[in-house]
Structures are given as C-alpha cells and as structure tokens.
Design a protein that fits this description.
The protein is built from 5 helices and no strands. It is mainly α and 122 residues long. Helix 1 packs antiparallel against helix 2 (29-49). 4% of the residues are buried.
Amino acid sequence: MVAFAPLAYLVAAICFIMALRGLSSPETSRQGNNYGIVGMVIAIVTTLMLPGLISGLSLTLIIIGIAATIQVLVHLRYFLHLDLTSTPRENLVAIVFTAILIVLMVGGSFWIMFDLHSRMAM
C-alpha cells in the first residue's frame, strides 16, 4: 500500500483541481462537487490505510500539523478574502474569529477525548 499511496494522492490532487475548476461556474458546480467528494474520499482512505500511521505517530502528527497550517492560510486568503487591499482592522477581526473557532473546536475535541479516555479507564 505504501508504494500505491503517492499515486492515490496524485489522483486525489487532480480531483481537487478539477473540483475547483468545476466550481468556477454555476453550470458545472455539481460536477465540481462530485470531483471534490471523490478526491476527499481517496485521500482519507489512502491516509487511513497507510501501515506506518500508528507506528510513526510523531511524524504523522507533524505532517498533519503542517497540512493544517497550510489549510488555515489557504482559508484565510481565499475564503475569508484576506489580502493586502482590505483594512488591517477587517483582517484582524477575521483572524481573531478564525483563531477563536479553531481553539474552540480543537479544545472541545481534546476535552471530549480526554473525558472519554478517563471514563473508559475506570
């Protein structure tokens, strides 16, 4: 499976690119959504099937952290439309809002996981 993973990720990336192309117009938006779904499923299944996912947990966490940081930067630029032409106050409000959401989601997830772990250890 390890030798197959780069090819699967390449196919997933091509699906994501085709999804972005399809989402650029209302006529092809359904097809773009379908490509995005297929690409995401391929990427998730490939990641979960890698044998070193559990044994190389520290490397996996580093890669996930880097990918999450890149994803946040992409979201700030393309979905929150932060650029150099808007005012600094608007950028600050968007960044603070994003940071609060991330802290709430990650903190809540850790709280739930640790609570479940402590309950199962009893």
